[in-house]
Amino acid sequence: MSAIYRRPVPLAKCYRLLNHGPTVLVSAAHGQQRNIMAAAWAMPLDFQPPKVTVVLDKSVWTRQLLEASGHFVINVPTVSQVDIVETVGSTSGLEIFRADEQDKFKAYGLETFSGDVVDAPLLEGCVAWLECRLIPEPHNQSQYDLFIGEVVAAWADERVFSDGHWHFADHDSLRTVHHVAGGHFLVIGDEAVGSVLHRVEHPLA
Amino acid sequence: MSAIYRRPVPLAKCYRLLNHGPTVLVSAAHGQQRNIMAAAWAMPLDFQPPKVTVVLDKSVWTRQLLEASGHFVINVPTVSQVDIVETVGSTSGLEIFRADEQDKFKAYGLETFSGDVVDAPLLEGCVAWLECRLIPEPHNQSQYDLFIGEVVAAWADERVFSDGHWHFADHDSLRTVHHVAGGHFLVIGDEAVGSVLHRVEHPLA
Asked: Nearest to residue B143, comparing CAs of A143, A63, A46, A146?
């Protein structure tokens, strides 16, 4: 349904999809297996070529799929999806797989669509998606659980992201969420504009 | 003035000061020189011992001071300080120093106070402060401009952060800001609570 609002985002501006620090969902697939998890620790790392970083604990299945496939997707969810964020952030895809319920997408009725470049599923209902190619950095991955990806395609919902800026004023249900802890989120609010201050005058300087 | 509201944050919970993705100010000092800059690309990296990461371009003076001293501070500013954020994010401390105006703090009338552990200045009027010790990672620093720090002390304004959670409802002027691009910020909004969904029933599964 949201496909009619989905537009490609120029790679030079895709960092702006994460610049304001939303909690994201990381999805990955390998072979017949796929998974999705919540991650509050994700941020842009570079403009051009665009890179992102995300922290993935050694215990999570998404990390195994990502390491095996070399690809992942950063999905930016909305306040309407806050229960989905909490759910995929506190359940184990591997446990669901072993219980013969296939995966979190099927277990929780989550719809997906395919990206342009990577095999990982993109979650319907989000407001932005970054398709990423893993840049292997074994020391960071083992020492810090820190993964770096190059963004190879990016998408956003044009109702709230256009001309390189977020515009949430008329779409409260599409605002991004920012996790604090234990299912407690903050929803992104209104705009503010910052201006460069004049310097203080120091007569004796 | 805000000192009366400043309380130490237990290190085990200091990640929550950054978990919702605010734009931060990074300050550092070395010898008689000090500087402060804005950084949207900062996030928690670990719980215990707590670590953070921040991206610092090779061109910025704060990076040189931080590399020389081995310490830095992550300050979390408020919407009341949005002009300060824009100002320290778009001016050069080194240029100010060379113009004999000392530093950004003096040039823009910014008040600071001292931390418990590190030498870098903490900015008055912010709502959280993380004192950090640099964990040298030469490859990350040169290849990705990515710096890792261990948090050695943390503070927050008890009016908006207590018991490990942010509470902005009665303090709109103390809400955190989240930069998008070009002086355009989003202010953090209200709370939302996420709940784990029930699994879809699959009669034939």
From this structure: A46
Six-digit token string for B142: 């040169």
B195 in a structural domain: no
Q: Is A7 on the interface with B (CB under 8 A)?
A: no
Question: How close does chain B come to A143, measured CA to CA in Å?
Answer: 11
| CATH code, B116 | 2.30.110.10
Q: Residue A57 sits in which domain range? A: 2-187
Nearest C-alpha neighbor of B153 from the set B120, B193, B179, B186: B120
Per-residue pLDDT of chain B (205 residues; tens, 9 = 90+): 568 999 999 999 999 999 999 999 999 999 999 999 999 999 999 999 999 999 999 999 999 999 999 999 999 999 999 999 999 999 988 889 888 878 999 999 999 999 999 999 999 999 999 999 999 999 999 999 999 999 999 999 999 999 999 999 999 999 999 999 999 999 999 999 999 999 987 655 4
Q: Does residue B28 form part of some domain?
A: yes
Q: Does B21 touch chain A (CB under 8 A)?
A: yes
- Answer for the pair B71, B28: CB distance below 8 angstroms, yes or no: yes
Unique residue bearing structure tokens 């993964």: A147
ipTM score for this prediction = 0.95
Q: How many domains does chain A have?
A: 1
Q: Which among B53, B146, B188 is the nearest to A186, CB-wise?
A: B188
Please tell me if residue A21 touches chain B, with a CB cutoff of 8 Å: yes
pTM for the predicted model, two decimal places: 0.96
Q: Does B41 touch chain A (CB under 8 A)?
A: yes
Residue B178 to chain A, least CA–CA distance (Å): 5
